[in-house]
Amino acid sequence: MKNKKRVGQLILAAVLATSMSTQAFAVPAQIPNNEHITYYGDSIIMPRWNNINSILPGIGNSGSTIYAEVSVDIKDNSQRVKCTMYLEKKTLFGWTEEKYWYISQTGDLAWSKTYTGEAGKTYRVRVEVEVDGETAEATTKTITL
Q: pTM above 0.90?
């Protein structure tokens, strides 16, 4: 059942990717012991958690409308997922929080929000996830409007 669900999520991600004019999807930015993920060409090394299968944040845009999204697949759907999704804007001093959203629910999470951004500015989505005391963070690549 999990494999059928994962295939469905991948198909949904592919449909979303073709429908957005510009997007960047990313995998978790850090593994639990705070070491960074290693990228090898188009392949990546995925971290393994005790309670989380995957965290897939996404960002895309159509004109000045930014689409921020996250998908969290957990190992036990009876557990509660707590997720804060941050839309961050790049400034001269680094990344600043432009907007944030919070959700808490039982089971896997698929969630999206929109925001009107500024032309010429660079944005990313960062998510913080907690499942049964285990925390993880993931960040997308950037988009520039």
A: no
